[in-house]
Amino acid sequence: MKNISLDNPIAHGRTADVYHWDDGHILKLFHNWFELQNIEYELKIARAVHASGVKAPEVKELIQIQGRNGLIYERVIGESMLDMFQHKPWKVFTYARILAGLHAQMHECVFDSASIPAQRRRLQNKINHADALSDSLKTSLLNALQSLPDGNRVCHGDFHPANVLISGADASVIDWMDASRGNPLADVARTSIILLGAAESEEIPNPFIKSLVKIFHSIYLRQYFRLRPGGEDEYRRWLPIIAGARLSEEIPELEKWLVRQAGKVDQTSMS
Asked: Does residue 26 sit in the same domain as residue 132?
């Protein structure tokens, strides 16, 4: 087993630290409290994502270092799109189109493995566990969810600029723990709810940045539907459902806004 010093991680995270492994790989070393079954789940998801053809780092193996479990990943050199956007906000049009292009490419890919979680089941579970929703609103959201079609496409589940690494003309998508097999339009709605929620709440306190994020979202959405035409009406029907599901994540500064968006379910279902 390779000797590695745990004194100097490349990055710290809530569930794991990241270390240099060799010139082509990094080690994602999980904290002892993080359960092995969750790490094995990440390994399964990462392999299925890479096999689907999505631009994402390849995972090599699960190992143990000094009593901690870790995953060896292909090293992806790059800076997050979020950091680049913050440093060069005047490139908002460029970054938004890159994000749309990556999302559209992802949604051309199919999850062949039946072991990948179904998007519908995940959304049902999240809505049922969203304490901020009234029982009647939960019922409306679940009924609306049942009326929308399934899919078998690769859906990230948490696709936003912080989860895209850019290096020159190349880009790669990371952080696939919320991936599912499902409907691409629900995945687009999730990105919209993330971006618009940040712009409409105290997640982003600066009014100028709020405006830029709204512009970014508008360009992203327009470019996505240019690349994958059709489905705009169905996308709008997904928005209240995704907002209701996001309430299960218990983000205090977003709660009121998300409840308002979820409450539009009856309006969108009649459109």
From this structure: no
